[in-house]
Amino acid sequence: DKGNHRHFMLKEIYEQPTVVGQTLSSYIDPLNLRIVLQDLCFDPKTISRVTLIACGTSYYAAMVAKYWIEHYAHIPVDVDIASEFRYRAPVLSQGGLAVFISQSGETADTLAALRHCKQAGQTVAAIVNVPESTMAREADMVFPIHAGPEIGVASTKAFTCQLSVLAALAIGFGVLRKTIDRSLEATLVQALSEVPSRMAEVLHHDEKLRDIAADLANARDVLYLGRGTDYPIALEGALKLKEISYIHAEGYAAGELKHGPIALIDQAVPIVVIAPMGPLFEKTVSNMEEAIARGGKVILMSCKDGLKNHSDMAMASIELPQVHPMATPLLYALPVQLLAYHTAVHKGTDVDQPRNLAKSVTVE
Ligand code: M6R
After folding, report:
1. How far apart are CA 336 and CA 227, in angstroms?
2. How far apart are the CA of 40 and the centre of ligand 1, in A?
3. Is 359 a catalytic residue?
4. Percent of the chain at pLDDT above 90?
5. Considering the entire predicted model, what is its pTM?
6. Quick count: other Cβ atoms within 10 Å of Cβ 242?
7. What percent of the chain has pLDDT over 70?
8. Which of 16, 168, 194, 217 falls between 20 and 30 A from 92, CA-CA?
9. DSSP 8-state symbol, 188
10. Rounded CA gap, 244 and 177, in Å?
């Protein structure tokens, strides 16, 4: 049932404040500002390496988690696309934890990689939405994301719920490994617990994003730029746009712009810049200025302080709430989802059932 929404995708975008709240409630204790993890079948203190494996949007969640786990838990992390991992000769560390991220829990390549890691003696964890899925059954340990059924082929709420679980795991591992003290744990848990209400604020920009999308619908190519944990959000924004509007889009790490893609830039290529306030803000802005100097038309997503001196140079801007850096990928996922959604609606494509795509890819 789509409720009063025109598409499942829109309904699922709008569900995010609620479902992310539900997900977080099983991983955090908001009163005492602590992470609560179920009994783990491994000891985060002795894990030698974490290998995160997934496909598509779930892979982008893994990319975000790499930054978090390295930063907060000081564990080396590898991220891999399942279809690449399984046909390589990956060298797995003894005492390694392999984590498989999948909405469906059935994606063939991810499942094959899971079986490979299990056979190779890794501790295997699955972060899934479907609790009775094959991956959930075969893993040593399951972390459910509690997003509820996701019908739209383009993943939205599963992504932000995956990020919520991964954030809790990164903090939880850090606490157990003592790389995070009690006060940092409290700060981070507080930041996460505010995400649902901040997401609800972000959804108020729906109409503005619809207006921007009317322009975007005329583009042939669109670039998305971000740094740090917002680089995977740039990739995710580009994937969403490709999947449902069929407009060619690329996500880049903003610092890579001058190593090639800057050659593409002219007035006809809109550039979505994801630039929350934080340690990387100035760096991202200087990449944006390089693009503007070449005639690039920028759609800038930042917070009030970020937009203060920079919104004039952008073609359009979206003001998001100012939050802790750990919360930015969760929040900035929403405007890129909405931008793709409205662009597709504008073009009249089949949003919930895009051509050539299946919800669950059970062939290799
Ligand atoms: O069910 P999974 O999370 O394993 O699916 C992985 C990808 O097939 C999936 O994320 C796909 O990229 C979506 N269409 C993205 O919107």
Report:
1. 15
2. 27
3. yes
4. 92
5. 0.97
6. 18
7. 100
8. 168
9. H
10. 42
